[in-house]
Amino acid sequence: MIDDGTIGKLRTIQSFFSYFDDNPKSIHNHLAWGGGGLMDIGCYPISLSRFLFHDEPTRVVGILEEDPRFHVDRLTSGILEFATGTATFTCSIQLTEYQRIIAFGTKGRVEIEIPFNAPSEKPCRAWLEVDGEMEPIEFAICDQYGIQADLFSEAILNDTPVPTPIEDAVSNMRVLEAIVRSGKSQRWEELS
Predict the structure, then answer these.
(1) DSSP label at 27?
(2) Taking the CB of residue 157, how many other CB atoms lie within 10 A of it?
(3) Which of 64, 74, 114, 165 sits at 20 to 30 Å (Cα–Cα) from 16?
C-alpha cells in the first residue's frame, strides 16, 4: 500500500514498542549482555522505517532514559530524518506492553496494531485510511518465527541469498549507535 502509492507519498512514520521487565536476572537488564530497550526492541522501528523509505536516514537524534539500578536504557525515543520524510519512535522495557506503527502519506495512512511480533493465536489487524474512508484489514493467523526460519532454511538449502542480508543488520546497527551517541551528546548525529 505504501509502495504502490495507495496512501500517496510516504512522509512520516510513527512507531511504538514496549513491554515491562524490571527483573534483575533478565538479559534485558544487563548492560554487558546487550540489555536495554534500544538494542532489544528499538531496532525494529528503525529497521521498519529504513525498509519503508527504501533509504538510510541522513541524521538522527535520540533521548535515552537510563534505569539507575541496571544502567540500561529503559525508555528511548528517536527521530530519523530521511531525504523524503521523517520517522519517530519510542521503545521501552519498563512501560505497559504495546505495539503500533502508523505510516502517513499525502493521501492517507496505514496503521498496524501489532507490527513486530504478531500473536500466533489470533489474527492481526490494520487500518487503511484514504480520503477520509477507513478500511479495516485482517491478516490471517500465522507463525512469523516459523516463516522466518523456513525462509532462512530455504536460502541455505537452495544456496540463495537470505531474505535480509547481513549488510542490512550492519546498516541498522549504524543507526542504533548514532541514536546512542546523540543521547549522550544531546545533538543531532549525521549519518553519511
Answers:
(1) G
(2) 8
(3) 165
Instruction: Please check the confidence at residue 97 and state whether its pLDDT lies above 90.
Output: yes
Tell me the three cell numbers of residue 167: 549488510
CA neighbor of 10 nearest in space, from 115, 100, 88, 84? 84
CA distance 107 to 6: 8
- pTM of this structure: 0.92
What are the cell numbers at 189?
Answer: 548525529
Q: Pseudo-torsion of CA 48, 66, 167, 16, nearest 10°? A: -10
- DSSP letters for 108-164: EEEEESS-SS--SSS-EEEEEEETTEEEEEEEPP--HHHHHHHHHHHHHHHT---SS
Domain boundaries 10-140+168-190, corresponding CATH code: 3.30.360.10
Q: How far apart are CA 13 and CA 39, in angstroms?
A: 20
Q: How far is CA 177 from CA 34, 65, 91, in A?
A: 12, 15, 15
Stronger pLDDT, 142 or 14, i.e. the higher one:
14
Q: How much is the average pLDDT of 102-120?
A: 94
